[in-house]
Amino acid sequence: MNERGVQLPIVLMGVSGCGKSTIGVRLASELGMAFIEGDEFHSKAGRIKMASGRPLSDEDRMPWLDRLGETLALAPRSVVACSALRRTYRDRIRDWVPDAQFVYLKGDRRVVLKRTMSRSHDFMPVELLGSQYSVLEPPQPDEAAFTVAVGVGPDRVVRTILERLGHLGPGTIPQSPAVDS
Known about the structure:
Pathway: Carbohydrate acid metabolism. Keywords: ATP-binding, Kinase, Nucleotide-binding, Transferase. The structure is a single chain. This protein has a single domain (10-166), classed as Rossmann fold. It is built from 7 helices and 5 strands; from the N terminus they run βαβααβαβααβα. The protein has helices at residues 20-31, 44-51, 58-74, 87-96, 109-117, 129-135, 154-166, and strands spanning 10-13, 34-37, 78-81, 101-106, 145-149. Strands 2-3-1-4-5 form a 5-stranded parallel sheet, covered by helices on one side. The two termini are 26 Å apart. Residues 168-181 have low confidence and may be disordered.
């Protein structure tokens, strides 16, 4: 348990450009936890496929999710940035870390597109953003997850997440997601 009482592994999820890495680094620092960049766990073949403008299939993603889940199981006091777009992907991570707390960083498509267009990413071209939105399955009420809107600055998003985590209590998992903040 850290100084804020949070001991759950935290998975920041959402489409590319929603701020998972930016928020993740700041949140991990605030919580005194490690930060894990999920993109670093993609295979070389997966990176090449995405860089060529082709989205990953479920078959492509499962080994990536297993590598990430295993790492998170070994370092549970971590914040991880991982798209986790579909329920099956989140369930795969939960196979490794059943108590993972998911935070869905939800952004307006136009805002996220603008962010994505203004940055460079080694293997995630802006053209793949549409495919991410098409497979996105927001967390359901039976998942340990809550949603935070990202249309505000990163500091406000981090504060909102910290407030929401503070309501969970040490080692607890919410039973249903709350509405956008």
